[in-house]
Design goal:
The complex is a heterotrimer of chains A (436), B (189) and C (319).
Chain A (H helix, E strand, L loop, with lengths): L2 E9 L5 E6 L2 E7 L13 E6 L4 E4 L1 E6 L12 H10 L2 E6 L10 H14 L3 E4 L15 H6 L6 E2 L9 H10 L6 E4 L12 E2 L2 H6 L3 E2 L1 H18 L3 E3 L5 H12 L4 E5 L27 H13 L4 E2 L28 H10 L6 H16 L16 E5 L28 E7 L2 E5 L2 E2 L1
Parallel strand pairs in A: 1-4, 1-5, 6-7, 7-8, 9-10, 10-13, 11-12, 13-14, 14-15
Antiparallel strand pairs in A: 1-2, 2-3, 5-16, 16-17, 17-18, 18-19
Chain B lengths: L7 E4 L1 H18 L6 E5 L4 H16 L5 E3 L31 E9 L3 H13 L4 E9 L11 E5 L7 E5 L1 H4 L3 E5 L10
Parallel strand pairs in B: 2-3, 2-4, 4-5, 5-6
Antiparallel strand pairs in B: 1-8, 7-8
Chain C lengths: L15 H19 L12 E6 L4 H13 L3 E6 L10 H11 L4 E6 L4 H7 L6 E7 L5 H15 L10 E5 L6 H12 L3 E5 L15 E3 L2 H5 L4 E4 L15 H8 L3 H4 L7 E3 L12 H4 L6 H20 L10
Parallel strand pairs in C: 1-2, 1-3, 3-4, 5-6, 5-8, 6-7, 8-9
Helix pairs in contact in C: 1-5, 1-11, 2-11, 5-6, 5-11
The chains are: A alpha/beta (436), B alpha/beta (189), C alpha/beta (319).
Chain lengths: 436, 189, 319
């Protein structure tokens, strides 16, 4: 297609610029108030997008997405998940391996990757399983997945913990061959058998089996020491406790190459919501205490936690329309992640837009080693761009979610703005808040 | 409970004691002695009235007369029309009511529905030989074929009037008032 | 009069006045149980559903009898097997019951909070009574225990101010303990929980009670001791080393009975594991009021049904 001009948006919330995109690349940027600019290409402007009053940031990169395909296409497909991602401002997602069949072979990851290319509105980067069938018994063919067409670099048994310390050590060592990273779902299985919610005064009162913070923290502590010992990169999925933050902070101080993510819901919601026994709030790891939320926010600000990742976990209605213990764990998050991040970090002044773009785009792209993603809003960068419109929104309605599942804990919540436009590799995927 | 100025006293303390004495004498005459007599008051204000009648009958006859309380809430036909009510104590004399002459006592007789409920309650308690009804006020407007045997005073009323009986034991004063304004808590009787 | 809410889900929902109203209503209804005609016409035309996803013959029969004594139509729905594995069956069952016009649903479920889902998910309109949910609560059990305590220790009147109750056993998994701690506290009693630390939940500090690991010390203070059922399968979860050791340290036997005050009573929600948490001679001793608890259970449940269903409900204006 011809050139696209994005008019009047403010990169990183600073001064408004007109941005020219041609052939998938940002070719020029000029301050919007300069008239007679010669930045516009002489001919062939195919599309002009109004971004006045909006903030322009690099397209978001999610390191932790469940697209459910293959196997649970009733909950989400790669196509619908891609749409939800685009609507949420993402231009790249990492599709977790706990599908059916499990993404533990080159064949499955290539299929996922190909379906992502077909959908064509975000980069779908498959995450490979660490162990065969997520069983935690035997390493999956990590090398084959790495050298497949999908070029897998992130490996995770997410949903389950690689709890065998020897197997975890081997995985950490093995991925060094292709500079991969193991993303650990830190949850000691024995300490969390039948666990339903954060363990503490509330779980005691509600009679729900407790999920102790130590079950997460102990695994993280073990894994950072293993990573140090073998000299490998470690990524920690969905950190949820103040204690985990302390362990990671300690590891980073020691120079251990560990990165960590936190979900929007763990940055906002607390365990008190479980009092309703409404399984919409059932999630793994569980919602924690206000102290934990506070520590997690602080960790994001100081960089102890590197990135925000959605853990978008779609579930069909029947998996939530039931009693707590029977319900599936997880929340959808692609479409609300940026809004929640804005509420938590931008509106409070804890982070600048540039900081937030680092944590939701640049750094996750680096951890996942995704080319052309997370690049700055500057001439020469690949044109993966998200335009955030800060005008106040009505209460979030389930019909507004384009993903297949509606299990969002934010239904009815006032969102602080919306994604107005998204450009994926120079082509509009979202225009005026709707799929292009 | 707020009594408006239109309330007027129709029976005072002296009237009430005269009525109690007369009712008691009638009960004695009617039941030809009081050997098997049991006086059951219907809460709330039927209970102190029953007690007074029982004491008076006892004085006349020279021996104690069993007296108790019979809460009819669980037998009412209007439970679904109002908020749930607290139960009042039921206290049936130990010997039971089989073969006895039971005199039910209430303060005001109105629609007759309370007495209907009381008859059902009595029926579940046993099989008395005779059941009689004594009331301080009969204000008319019966909705069921029920008639009192002993009456303190017949008091013709309009339906929008409220009759209020007060007894020292509960209200600190003995009197009967009639009020043409609704005072909210209509007598259920 | 202090109304109950629409549902009875947690003992913690009851304030002192409401709890006392239930106990006082129970006392009035108890006299009905003593006479030859035990039936009342109060709930004629009302439909009460016993929805039991977990086997509990005693509780089910108790509610059934309570509802029948008040002349309600009673349907019993016993779901076979675990509903947890079936997922949506709770909702489907609820919709079925709603179609049948249930005025109240008495639900027993293996999952904590299942009655809350029934009450709040919009599946049904009727009142929901929690007859035991997972390891969460069992409010009518606590009410019948409070009634039993009051009649033995407080002359059958007022609250339980100053009464010292010791609850012994698997507190972690006990809905009876949770409901009792809340209700007995509301009524002014002092509660001490006694169990090995493994069977006391993390977070117990926030409960309005004290905790001890030593039974003998606690027994000396007690006006009543309530023994909780200990399931032998807890041994597999390493909660205690052996049933023998458990019974030695936390079982109530004849020598321990001697430690109790003269008029102290022994309670058990049933069913008992004789020889594990309570010895046979204690269970059959004159201090044990276990059979009486069962009888009181029917009356308490009648009181709850009357107070929840015996009026116009929330749609009519009160006075």
């Amino acid at each position: 297609m011809g050139a696209v001009v994005l008019r009047g948006g403010a990169p990183y919330g600073l001064d408004p610029h007109d941005i020219v995109i041609d052939d998938g690349v940002i070719t020029a940027m000029t301050p919007s108030n300069q008239s007679g600019s010669n930045a516009l290409p002489a001919e062939g402007v195919e599309l002009e997008l109004d971004a006045s009053g909006c903030t322009v940031i690099p397209g978001l990169v999610d390191l932790h997405t469940h697209l459910r395909e293959p196997g649970r296409e009733d909950a989400e497909t790669i196509a619908t998940g891609s749409q939800a991602a685009a609507m949420g401002g993402f231009t790249c997602v990492h599709a977790m391996a706990n599908t059916s069949p499990v993404a533990d072979t080159a064949g499955v990851v290539e299929q996922v990757w190909r379906r992502g290319v077909e959908a064509g509105i975000v980069d779908v980067r498959p995450v490979g399983a660490v162990t065969v069938g997520l069983k935690g018994e035997q390493l999956a063919e990590l090398g084959a997945m790495a050298s497949s067409a999908a070029s897998v670099r992130v490996f995770s048994d997410d949903g389950l913990c690689v709890h065998d310390p020897l197997l975890m050590r081997r995985a950490l060592e093995y991925v060094k061959t292709f500079d991969g990273v193991v993303a650990q779902h830190a949850q000691d299985p024995r300490l969390t058998e039948a666990a339903q919610m954060n363990e503490g005064a509330l779980s005691a009162r509600l009679g729900l089996a407790g999920w102790p913070a130590v079950a997460e923290e102990a695994i993280i502590a073990r894994d950072v020491l293993l990573a140090e010992h073998v000299g490998s990169r470690l990524h920690v999925c969905h950190v949820s406790t103040a204690g985990s933050v302390e362990v990671i902070r300690w590891a980073k101080t020691r120079g251990i190459p560990v990165t960590a993510e936190v979900t929007p819901h763990h940055l906002l919601l607390t365990e008190e919501l479980v009092e309703s026994f409404d399984p919409i709030y059932k999630v793994n790891p569980p919602l924690r205490r206000a102290e934990d939320v506070h520590a997690l926010r602080e960790a994001v600000v100081e960089g102890t936690i590197d990135i925000i990742a959605t853990d978008h976990a779609p579930h069909p209605r029947e998996d939530k329309d039931c009693e707590w213990a029977a319900a599936a764990m997880g929340m959808v998050g692609l479409e609300t992640a940026l809004g929640i991040a804005v509420e938590v970090f931008i509106e409070s002044g804890l982070l600048t837009w540039r900081d937030l773009a680092d944590r939701m785009s640049t750094i996750p792209a680096r951890i996942g080693q995704v080319a052309d993603q997370g690049m700055p809003i500057a001439p020469g960068s690949a044109a993966n761009i998200t335009v955030w419109d800060p005008s106040p929104q009505g209460p979030l309605e389930v019909d507004a979610l384009v993903g297949k599942s509606g299990n969002s804990p934010y239904l009815g919540r006032q969102m602080p703005g919306t994604v107005r436009h998204v450009l994926f590799r120079g082509r509009p995927s979202v225009v005026d808040g709707a799929l292009a | 409970m707020v009594f408006l100025s239109s309330a007027r006293v129709v029976l005072d303390q002296a009237d009430i004691s005269r009525a109690v004495r007369r009712i008691s004498h009638e009960i004695v005459e009617n039941s030809r002695g009081s050997d098997d007599l049991i006086i059951l008051g219907i809460p709330t204000r039927g209970v102190p009235l029953a007690r007074r009648i029982a004491e008076t009958v006892a004085q006349i006859e020279g021996h104690p007369v069993p007296c108790g309380a019979l809460d009819v809430t669980l037998y009412r036909d209007d439970l679904r029309l109002r908020e749930v009510r607290a139960l009042e104590p039921t206290d049936i004399p130990a010997q039971g009511i089989d073969g006895c002459t039971v005199v039910l006592v209430d303060d005001v007789l109105y629609s007759g529905r309370t007495i209907r409920a009381a008859l059902d309650a009595v029926h579940d308690l046993g099989r008395p030989a005779i059941v009689r009804l004594a009331v301080m006020i009969d204000r008319g407007h019966r909705e069921l074929p029920i008639r009192p045997d002993f009456i303190g005073k017949n008091l013709p009323t309009a339906k929008d009037e409220t009759v209020r009986v007060r007894f020292v034991e509960i209200d600190g004063v003995d009197d009967v008032m009639i009020d043409s304004e609704s005072v909210g808590d209509a007598d259920a009787g | 009069m202090q109304m109950l809410g629409k549902h009875l889900l947690s003992a913690g929902d009851l304030d002192r006045a409401q709890a006392l109203m239930i106990l006082d209503t129970t006392a009035e209804l108890a006299s009905v149980t003593e006479r030859s005609v035990k039936k009342l016409p109060t709930l004629r035309g009302r439909t009460v559903v016993n929805l039991f996803f977990e086997d509990s013959t005693r509780t089910r029969l108790s509610f059934e009898l309570a509802a029948k004594r008040l002349s309600a139509d009673v349907i019993t729905f016993s779901a076979k097997g675990s509903s947890v594995s079936k997922g949506e069956s709770l909702k489907d069952t609820a919709l079925t019951l709603e179609a049948m016009g249930a005025d109240a649903v008495i639900v027993r479920h293996g999952a904590s909070g299942a009655p809350y889902r029934l009450a709040t998910a919009g599946w049904i309109d009727g009142s929901v009574i929690n007859a035991g949910d997972g390891t969460h609560e069992h409010p009518t059990q606590a009410l019948l225990d409070a009634y039993t305590l009051r009649s033995h220790i407080c002359g059958g009147q007022g609250d339980l101010q100053g009464v010292h109750v010791v609850i012994v056993g698997d507190v972690l998994h006990s809905r009876v303990a949770r409901s009792n701690v809340l209700l007995l506290h509301t009524l002014g009693a002092e509660v001490t929980l006694v169990a090995p630390p493994t069977l006391i939940p993390v977070g117990v500090e926030s409960w309005p009670c004290s905790v001890s690991y030593h039974l003998d010390d606690a027994l000396m203070q007690a006006d009543a001791v309530m023994m909780l059922r200990v399931q032998a399968e807890r041994m597999a979860g390493s909660y205690f080393p052996s049933t023998l050791e458990y019974s030695r340290l936390y079982g109530l036997d004849a020598p321990r009975l001697e430690l109790l005050k003269d008029r102290a009573i022994v309670m058990h929600p049933g069913p008992m594991n004789r020889g594990l948490e309570i010895s046979a001679d204690v269970a059959d001793s004159s201090r044990a009021v276990i059979v009486e608890q069962v009888a009181n259970g029917v009356n308490v449940r009648m009181a709850c049904l009357y107070l929840l269903l015996g009026g116009a409900g929330s749609q009519a204006g009160g006075d």
